[in-house]
Prior knowledge:
Elements: H1 4-10, E1 15-21, H2 24-31, H3 35-48, E2 53-58, H4 61-64, H5 83-88, H6 95-108, E3 111-116, H7 119-125, E4 132-134, H8 142-149, E5 155-158, H9 164-175, E6 182-187, H10 201-209, E7 214-219, H11 228-235, E8 240-244, H12 262-279, H13 291-297, E9 300-303, E10 318-321, E11 339-340, E12 355-356
Parallel strand pairs: 1-2, 1-8, 2-3, 4-5, 5-6, 6-7, 7-8
Antiparallel strand pairs: 9-10, 11-12
Helix pairs in contact: 2-3, 3-6, 8-9, 11-12
Amino acid sequence: xxxxxxxxxxxxxxxxxxxxxxxxxxxxxxxxxxxxxxxxxxxxxxxxxxxxxxxxxxxxxxxxxxxxxxxxxxxxxxxxxxxxxxxxxxxxxxxxxxxxxxxxxxxxxxxxxxxxxxxxxxxxxxxxxxxxxxxxxxxxxxxxxxxxxxxxxxxxxxxxxxxxxxxxxxxxxxxxxxxxxxxxxxxxxxxxxxxxxxxxxxxxxxxxxxxxxxxxxxxxxxxxxxxxxxxxxxxxxxxxxxxxxxxxxxxxxxxxxxxxxxxxxxxxxxxxxxxxxxxxxxxxxxxxxxxxxxxxxxxxxxxxxxxxxxxxxxxxxxxxxxxxxxxxxxxxxxxxxxxxxxxxxxxxxxxxxxxxxx
Length: 358
């Protein structure tokens, strides 16, 4: 199985995950193709866009939601008013289908994973994934977190709609049962998330609060041309970004209306590449490109008067002027007290060859 996510995280590289979820059902209906062909088409489009991993959602409506569970999404985009009714539309896939999608992803060199929402899917997905993704909705489902943690694979944990003590409890539950890396994903459970509610500074808080964990962002804002949300999240410390993925953002229903499409994904990746270029490596050293400026804009020790050969040089005989091609003013004490080895005219850049240390 392609292990892109953890390999890139370990190298400090950015990771973009396309959350296909169950959007392929709508794509299949729109294009008159099978659900499986639609899912594969979305994987291919994600791979062609340069996305690093694709993620699905694996559940059965009957194990996920009570029949009278109310909606919590924008019903102008998704008019279904019952969670159970909505999930029933999108729960036909099982092990064989996900195995086929995993194999197809491997062929394309893009990592496959799916969020498990019940014990059965957590078990059969184990053979198909390198990492587990736990939804914000299960953050307080400690028994289920522990069950997945015991698979002893790295875990991506979304922390939407949670308080600090709840995050701590979930992280502790994982650590008690698993010694692999944890990635916490800031997330706002508001679909779509208005920009004023994005609260991206929470990423910096998570990074400070959990310095030994990777930090990411599960984004539910509508894509912007400038990719400003993702760029800001990245610059605040989100090394991994998960975002819903569609081939048609105009489709009504489920997660199309706040998803990225392939062009958005390409723009995001190009923006991150530009951010990396701008940010540099952060090392505290003079850049090669600064060499000419360093030499010419810095100062050197310069004679402030005519100095005759044999004269003991005093501080009053010296000043500091550009360029910095002579002795640095930081080393002026090494000049003071020396004898002039030759006649030195006023306004001359002092060189070592002009000095006698005898």
